[in-house]
Amino acid sequence: MIPYATIEEASLALGRNLTTLETLWFDYSATKSDYYLYCHNILFLFLIFSLVPLPLVFVELARSASGWFDRYKIQPKVKNSFSDMFRCYRDVMKMFILVVGPLQLVSYPSIQMIEIRSGLPLPSFGEIAAQLVVYFLVEDYTNYWVHRFFHSKWGYEKIHHIHHEYTAPIGYAAPYAHWAEVLLLGVPTFLGPAIAPGHMITFWLWIALRQIEAIETHSGYDFPWTLTKFIPFYGGAEYHDYHHYVGGQSQSNFASVFTYCDYIYGTDKGYRFQKKLLQQMAGIRSGLPLPSLMEIVAQLVVYFLIEDYTNYWIHRWLHCKWGYEKIHRVHHEYTSPIGYASPYAHWAEVLLLGIPTFLGPAIAPGHIMTFWLWISLRQMEAIETHSGYDLPWTLTKLVPFYGGAEYHDYHHYVGGKSQSNFASVFTYCDYIYGTDKGYRVHKKLLQQIKEEADQKGGRKYD
Ligand SMILES: [Zn+2]
Ligand SMILES: [Zn+2]
Ligand SMILES: [Zn+2]
């Protein structure tokens, strides 16, 4: 609604002629009520939810059929059929009709309260841009904390798990969530305009851009030509995809727009580590020529040394009170280990101890065959170490500083309280950091006892 009856009246009040855009706006909105203008959002949201993800549907179908775009898909193993994507759209539309639309209809008083204007003059480009920046920053910060709350036990089980049904999100899944989540996440979106209210057009633009941003973020594709890559600290599709990929247990990448909240509050550590690792692992080659025997051996030595050193410290940490009670206790159920018990552990331990195994190949990537060999040897080594048998003809006894079955068996024998023999492969870490003292005393004592027994035994047959 514009409080002037004619264009002449309006330009008289402004003290200047109307711009072309202002004339257009006058012609369009002069006779329309503010409520009616506000409700345009319903149409905009419907169009955006329906049309913006549509190109992604064609991209996904083309990819499934021919492998095109495969290299831009963030989780290329996941394929969505047309009916999968249509089901998502149908669910989102249901939510739109039942929740988003009615919310728009009844939230008008709040728009009146914060005094969003709809008249003339139109806002300058600078005003629009400044307000949009503020809205995005406020949205991002507030959304971060609401989203973190959703990842509490209660919030996740009752509400947020629905949004996480997609471990590999698609464009249509951006607003796919529990109705309570849709309502609650309306707050961060509305907070910016409440703090810095502007023109109705800015408000429309904000709602539209925020939804388009969410669709891009959930697209599942990381296109190199995406313009948002130019925005500083912008998260984007690959960033939020990781949050869905990790799933319900995810304590990483909560932010909806930018990356700085996760950085400041330390909730992007896992993501940054994995990204670096993957980037370096990308150096693993699979073609010809095959690696020389020298290269394979050199790399395996490096892998074993890195594994041993990193594993030592993680294992030591797993023996702190918290780490032991929550995680490592499971592996120590065997006080006298057997071969099959070597990977017997809490799932978190299995994940965590994947790091030392992948770190070597990430630092010194080689041929895929070397990688296979490494994974196999590492597992065989762990099985030997947990075998429970100290066979005298074991060839690994020829490897210098090699721990072996008897060495790690002692760690299990002492059990949870054990502060001894943490190393997984070699003995030198425990020696340097002084965590083999108990073991060495124990071994010496056993030897003395054995020698004494031998002497006594010898005398017996005198
Ligand atoms: Zn989440
Ligand atoms: Zn999401
Ligand atoms: Zn242990």
TrEMBL record:
Single GO molecular-function term? iron ion binding
Under the heading InterPro entries, the entry gives: Fatty_acid_hydroxylase (IPR006694), Sterol_Desaturase_Related (IPR050307)
Picking any one GO biological process from the record gives: lipid biosynthetic process
The alphabetical list of record keywords is: Membrane, Transmembrane, Transmembrane helix
Q: Where is the Fatty acid hydroxylase domain?
A: 133-267, 301-435
Compartment annotation: Membrane
Q: Which Pfam families match?
A: FA_hydroxylase
- From the record, give the transmembrane residue ranges: 35-59
On the tree of life, the source organism's domain of life is Eukaryota
The family this protein is said to belong to: Belongs to the sterol desaturase family.
What's the protein name?
A: Fatty acid hydroxylase domain-containing protein
Species of origin: Brassica campestris
